[in-house]
Each structure stands twice: as C-alpha cells, then as structure tokens.
Amino acid sequence: MTSTSSDALIFFxxxxxxxxxxxxxxxxxxxxxxxxxxxxxxxxxxxxxxEQFKARAKDSLEKHGGLDPEAWEKLDGLLHYIxxxxxxPETFSKLRNSLGNAQQPLYYMAIPPSLFAVVAEGxxxxxxxxxxxxxxxxxxxxxxxxxxxxxxxxxxxFPEESIFRIxxxxxxxxxxxxxxxxxxxxxxxxxxxxxxxxSVQITMAESFGVLGRGKLYEELGAxxxxxxxxxxHVVACxxxxxxxxxxxxxxxEARGKLLKEVRVLEPSQVVRGxxxxxxxxxxxxxxxxxxxxxxxxxxxxxxxxxxxxxxxRVGKCLPCTVTEIIVRVKPSLHPMLEESSPLANYYRFxxxxxxxxxxxxxxxxxxEKMEGERIELIAHHQPPGEMDPYERLLGDASRGxxxxxxxxxxxxxxxxxxxxxxxxxxxxxxxxxxxxGPPAMTQAFVPKGGWHNPQPHE
Length: 458
Ligand code: BG6
Prior knowledge:
Layout: E1 8-12, H1 17-32, E2 40-44, H2 50-63, H3 69-78, E3 79-83, H4 89-99, E4 105-109, H5 116-125, E5 133-136, H6 144-157, E6 163-165, H7 173-184, H8 186-189, E7 197-205, H9 214-218, H10 221-239, H11 248-261, E8 270-275, E9 293-298, E10 310-315, E11 322-329, E12 346-352, E13 355-364, E14 372-382, H12 389-399, H13 408-418, E15 428-431
Parallel strand pairs: 1-2, 1-4, 2-3, 4-5, 5-6, 7-10, 8-15
Antiparallel strand pairs: 7-11, 8-9, 9-10, 11-12, 12-13, 13-14
Helix pairs in contact: 1-2, 1-3, 1-12, 5-6, 6-13, 10-11, 10-13, 11-13
C-alpha cells in the first residue's frame, strides 16, 4: 500500500449524532484550512435524499462552532449521500459506483460497534476494500474477548496499517502537550519517576448527565466509556518512556509498552457510583447497575513507576466540567525549614475546557521565620480549541499517519487491564448530582494530600 492521501472520504452513520456534533464541524475546518478537497460520501439508512443530508450538515455547523460561508460553499460541493441498509448489498454497489476512480478511500465508521463487521463485510463483497483505510470509533469492543474478535474480523478485510482506531483524547492539543512538555524540558523529565514523584491523580469531571444517550450509555458505563480508553491513554502519555525514534510508530510503541506494564485491576481497586436520577433517564433500566462514576487506582510495574499510584476518577453530574491532572512531588523538608505540614510541589495540567500547565512551588513567607507558603506558577494558559481533535485525527488518517491512533495490542491490553472490573462485579453506590461522587470516595484511593477538586473557572 502506498502512503498517499486518501482520495475519497466515506462516513457510515452520516445522519447520526457523532456526525452531527463532531464530523461535519471537523470537515468544515479541514476545508477552511485547505486540507480537504475530495468527494465526501455520507452513508446512512434514514430514507433521506442529498438535500436533506446537506441541510443536516448545515444545521450541524450552525449549532456546533458556526457556519463559515466560504468553507461551507466548498464543502457543500463535495458532499454526496447514499441511503441504504448496511445489510443490503445494493448499498455497497451504489457506493462502489460513487467511488468512481478513487484509489485509496477512507471509510469512517461512525456507527455502533455491532455494525462494524457487517459494514466491513459489505465493503469487501462489493470490492471496495482494496487499498482502503478504515477509521473505527470507540468503544472498540466491550471487553477483551469482543475486542479480540473485532480485530480478527477487521483483519480479514484490512491490514493492521490500514486500521485507525480513534480515541479522540489522543488528538487533543493538551494531551499532545503532555508528551511535549515532558520530553522537551529536561528539568521535568529528570525528576519524572518514583524517585521524586509521589502520586498522580486524574479527574475527568462532567457536570452533565447522559444527555439523552441513556440507551447507549446503558451498554457502556463510565469504565467502558472513558477509563479503558481516554484515561488509560492519558496515563500512557504521562508515564511512557522516551520514544526510540522519530516515526509515529515509535510513539505508538512507547505508549503500548507502557500500557503492557500497567497492573491488571482487581475488583477491590474500583469504586463505582451512579448519580441519583440516572434510572429515570430515557432508555435507562429502572434497576440499572451501570456506573456513571468510577474511581480506580492504577499501578505501573516497572522500575520507574513502582509504588506511585495513578488515581483516576471520572463521573457524570459532578460539580463542573473539567479534566485535570495533578502530579505530586515528594516533599523534602530540610530541618531548618519550619513547616508544620509540608506543602508539596506539584504539576497541574488542565486538559479541558481551557488548557493550563501550572507548577505548585513554595516560597518563604515574609518575616523572621524560615516558614513557607505555597504559590502557583502558571506556566501556560490558553483558551480552548486551536484544532479540534476530530479535525486533526481525520486529517492524519487520510494521510495514513497512525501515530495518534490506538494499535491492536494497545486496545487489547487496555481491555485486559479493566476486564475484571467491568459490569456488576463491585457494589454500586448512589451519589447526589453536583457532588464529587459517592461518599465512599472520601476514603477510597485518596492520593496523598487528598483529591484535588478542580475549579470550573481559572
Ligand atoms: C466521549 C464519551 O468519548 O468523551 C463521552 O463517550 C464524554 O461520554 C466525552 O462526554 C468527553 O470528551 P471531551 O472531549 O468533551 O472531554
């Protein structure tokens, strides 16, 4: 396979929620930057025509980030639409015809995982897979066994280098910056190990519930939705070793190697919660045992990280929508420094909604005593969104650059890490909306110095 740019972009699930919220805005942004000028074919089974499809695209842009008239005019000219059932071979022969002379199409599966195999088979039978690339949305499987099975199915039609498994967290600018900040600054990397660091905590808080996605969320729960993928990738970016080489594949190798060193979780290492009111959401079972909150503690079994807990908590209906990391440095107190309680140094990385890198440091309080106080040095602060992750990742996939996509082994090992805590194997505790999760959280996996509750506004 050559590494040229894809010459057609086809997305399945074109009338769905993901397309509406993320894909159309990403396509407009790509057109605006001059990065997209190939036919874009939406495929769905909604009994729509091209005009309805274009109206949906326009509406999506108006609601998500704004319509840019110049870019829209170009995008409008690139859009095509095929309406058809994925079980029906006719859908794929229509697609074959629409592809015309395209040599290297990029297929984006913005569809439920249960349909991945059906669509892949349909494409193969219609002779549409030759030289093609395929982008698969998360969740990639629902446990280790199903992820392995899905990989087997996809490999029947696509070689590994043509499969792009999306985890949009990897495409986020601040997640990229975690890696850059670590490796570009020797003063950080020199102290980046268990010799100097005490704990890492990651909070992914969302103030909203399941936003009408109750039926889908019932199939997931917080561990499948964001821990197995987004959170483990953040852990990998924080803890991986320096990639050996410049190629994108080296980056994937470094992340994958780290994930293989994360200790498999046991049921005693999770607290699961469900916000009060979840069971009344449309599509949710009245006795649902699905968690909307999870806290887990990862350990990494290698020399660099032995003994450093990576505490992660994620949840819906928490007091604010913020994702933040605190990396705490071990306190070192000289006897001359009069401190009743040591004030540890820390790094604070805020991944969203705004982007921030801050360092917690100590300075001397004015006065006679050698007594300190903590200050925070804001090293970097920028408003949200230079480039949306979907724009970045779609562009990368269409150029055949897989560095920000999950490789088969990483996906499987991530499932292996959480496999024993999936479903209803641990108690589920109710929590009040607008709190920081179940009361049990006050005792469980508290990183030294306590959980830091992020503030909504900086
Ligand atoms: C998605 C999850 O992958 O990530 C959602 O399915 C979650 O439940 C979302 O809300 C969060 O992404 P972001 O980019 O808004 O932090």
